[in-house]
Structures are given as structure tokens and as C-alpha cells.
Write a structure and sequence with these properties.
222 residues, single chain
């Protein structure tokens, strides 16, 4: 029997946010005289929250005061420039429509700050597209801690084993496996198959349509 609910990561899973994140982050550090990073490098920098992103793009050993100032500037810049390039991945709207038609409950769990998570979701999918939307700072420990994922399972009224979790990073796979959920890897996102498999992915999908095709064959017992 297919899963009754699915939790989605946001950045790198539902939305391709990489260019806007990279541009905002580079503006902040370049304004302080540090070199910017290639866009592709941000595939490894993002995924663990804004504070961790800033730490990763600054030189090793940078003082906390500098990191705090850069974090504030990054959040301010990103709030102004977050949707210049951002868009849903091809096939995501069709995947969401398919799941809705099957009566599958859906939620978003992100390490993006909660207000920005809500804003991103509302802008591209509408306010009622998901049963729940949680970002960092919504009262739960950020991923890979399973706190938010388990809260969502309780909101669905389901045992964690009845919930699938789709994400694109080791952080997502660790979150899913620690929560006792079925970890699905999105290869269209920011990381590689080897990372996802090493952190517990049970199935990998090259594009959203592949998950549509495989959905009925997925089972908590598989």
C-alpha cells in the first residue's frame, strides 16, 4: 500500500533556489573584501540553515562577530532578492497534482528561516498547497534533528513509518531515517547519488515524473 503522506524539503527539492542564494551570499562577503564563490559551490554550502551557510562561505577562523554581521546582511539581502531566478523544478507541479488526486497529505520541512519558507511556498504553490509548512525557527530543532518531521507525522495523525520524505541532501536523508520515515532522494537537486545513498536513501529519482511513475509501487514494507 502506498504512503499516506509525504514531507518535502524545499530548496533543491521543490524549488531551485541556488542562484538567488548564491548571489545574495556573494554580495555580502564581497562587500567585505572576500572573494565570492562559484554558483556550483553553493550546492555544498546550503541545506543546513542560514547561519551555517554564512560560516561556510567565510574564511575559516572568522570571528563570530563577523559571522553574525554577515548573517544579518545576508538575510536582509535575500529578503529583497529571493525570487529573481527561483522557480519550481520541472515536473513538481504535476507531482503535487498527482499526490493531491491520490489523497496523499503533504507538508514542507525546511532549514530556511520559517518566514521565508512560508513566503516561498505561498508564492510558487499557493497558501493551501500543503497541510503544513515548517522552516527554521518555527519552534522545532532544525534538520537533521527529527523533531520537525515527527511533529508533522503527528499532525498527519500517522505513524512515522507511514510517511515518505523527499529531499536532496544528506541532511534530509538523516532526518528521514532518524524519524523512522521512508527516505527518497531527489537527484535533480543539489547533491549526488552517492551522498544520498550513504545517508539512508531507499529510492532515488532523476526527475519528479519518475516518482509519479513509481508511487504506487512504494511501500513502507519495501
Amino acid at each position: 500500500m502506498p504512503f499516506s503522506a509525504i514531507i518535502f524539503d524545499l530548496d533543491g527539492t521543490l524549488l531551485n533556489t541556488l542562484s538567488d542564494l548564491a548571489e545574495s551570499a556573494n554580495r555580502v562577503i564581497m562587500a567585505r573584501g572576500f572573494p565570492g564563490h562559484p554558483r556550483a559551490a553553493y550546492k555544498k554550502f546550503v541545506g543546513d540553515g542560514a547561519a551555517t551557510l554564512v560560516r561556510r562561505i567565510l574564511p575559516a577562523g572568522s570571528p563570530q562577530e563577523l559571522a553574525d554581521a554577515c548573517l544579518a546582511d545576508f538575510l536582509a539581502d535575500y529578503r529583497q532578492n529571493w525570487k529573481k531566478h527561483t522557480a519550481p523544478y520541472d515536473g513538481i507541479p504535476d507531482l503535487l497534482s498527482f499526490l493531491k488526486g491520490r489523497g496523499v497529505a503533504t507538508a514542507v520541512l525546511s532549514n530556511k528561516p520559517h518566514p521565508m519558507t512560508e513566503l516561498n511556498v505561498a508564492e510558487f504553490f499557493g497558501k493551501d498547497a500543503f497541510s503544513f509548512v515548517l522552516g527554521e525557527g518555527a519552534g522545532f530543532v532544525k534538520k537533521p534533528d527529527p523533531d520537525g518531521a515527527l511533529h508533522l507525522a503527528r499532525g498527519f495523525g500517522l505513524a512515522p513509518s507511514r510517511v515518505a520524505y523527499l529531499g536532496d541532501t544528506a541532511t534530509d536523508m538523516d532526518t528521514a531515517t532518524t524519524a523512522g520515515m521512508y527516505a527518497l532522494g531527489a537527484l535533480w537537486g543539489f547533491r549526488e547519488a552517492e551522498e544520498l545513498l550513504a545517508h539512508g536513501a531507499k529510492k532515488l529519482f532523476a526527475k519528479p515524473g519518475d516518482l509519479v511513475a513509481a508511487w504506487d509501487s512504494l511501500s513502507p514494507e519495501a
